[in-house]
Amino acid sequence: MFKQIIIVFGLVLFAFxxxxxxxxxxxxxxxxxxxxxxxxxxCSKETGCIHNDINCDDGDACTTxxCSKLSGCCNLxxxxxxxDACTTxxCLNSTGCSNLxxxxxxxNACTTxxCSKKTGCCNLSxxxxxxNACTTxGCSKETGCTHSNIDCDDDDACTTxxCSKKTGCCNLxxxxxxxDACTTxxCLNSTGCSNLxxxxxxxDACTTxxCSKKTGCVHSNxxxxxxNACTTxGCSKETGCTHSNIDCDDDDACTTxxCSKKTGCSNLxxxxxxxDACTTxxCLNSTGCSNLxxxxxxxDACTTxxCSKKTGCSNVxxxxxxxDACTTxxCSKETGCCNSxxxxxxxEDCxxxxxxxxxxxxxxxxxxxxPQLIDC
Length: 376
Description:
Layout: H1 2-25, H2 29-32, E1 39-44, E2 48-53, E3 63-68, E4 72-77, E5 87-92, E6 96-101, E7 111-116, E8 120-125, E9 135-140, E10 144-149, E11 159-164, E12 168-173, E13 183-188, E14 192-197, E15 207-212, E16 216-221, E17 231-236, E18 240-245, E19 255-260, E20 264-269, E21 279-284, E22 288-293, E23 303-308, E24 312-317, E25 327-332, E26 336-341, E27 351-356, E28 360-365
Antiparallel strand pairs: 1-2, 3-4, 5-6, 7-8, 9-10, 11-12, 13-14, 15-16, 17-18, 19-20, 21-22, 23-24, 25-26, 27-28
């Protein structure tokens, strides 16, 4: 049994040896390529394929160096912007980002020079009143506040040096704890207490950043309600409150669209009355007022049809009198005036019947000549 185990073990060793020989025989760049542009592929006759990571470092501290299996080395420029208006941002190829603080010193020692990350330098006039009756307070542009003290200084900035009108100098150990969660408290014998304010700025224009002496930073949501019903109020983290005008247009040409800061949109019907009794006034939602002329035609040829802006239609009867006594004047609704000749026949054979436009019928008796006697 032991011999059989030795024989099997020998066969296995022989097989592995043959695989090494095959690998060494196929040792070329094409055979060892792993398809990864982030490795350098090579082959050793002793060990076979070798895949070493390539070095994508471009020696530039201003880029982020990485490697993608798809595209190979990638050297992207870094952003050195620290969103701080109090620094000058730059990048050196040798050392990388540099965010050097700007100088807000206005050369006037009577101002407090500070810097806001959002707005930059701020130079506020300082108050030199120390509330100490044992000092003379003043300010020099060159040196700043001046407080001429009586000499109670024990050269220890961590003691409170004071002056009492009754007892004189008093040098008591100071407590730098200002019971303010908004400051970092410390004391150096050379400089004294340091109560540096912490920054509560959350870089969100939609919050009011403040600090509570008890609990520390407080970020309260900004109230953007402008009390104007004509705007939609919102807030952008970058710029703060936004107030966009609402659209009161109801797409109705028959209304006057307006907006009141108190009540919002108002769409009041317009008046299409043109004060003309000769038009029909109406309104279409699509086009607005329509003032169409009315028809005063009464379909009566015996009237004169007209229209007055004040009173409307007028249908005045026409006169058919042709000033001719020899006609009968009448009017038909269909055809209008009719001037028919009158008959002057009086049925009398002894008269001549005629008509005068002025006088009317004239009946003139016929005159016969006297009969002449004839001699027989």
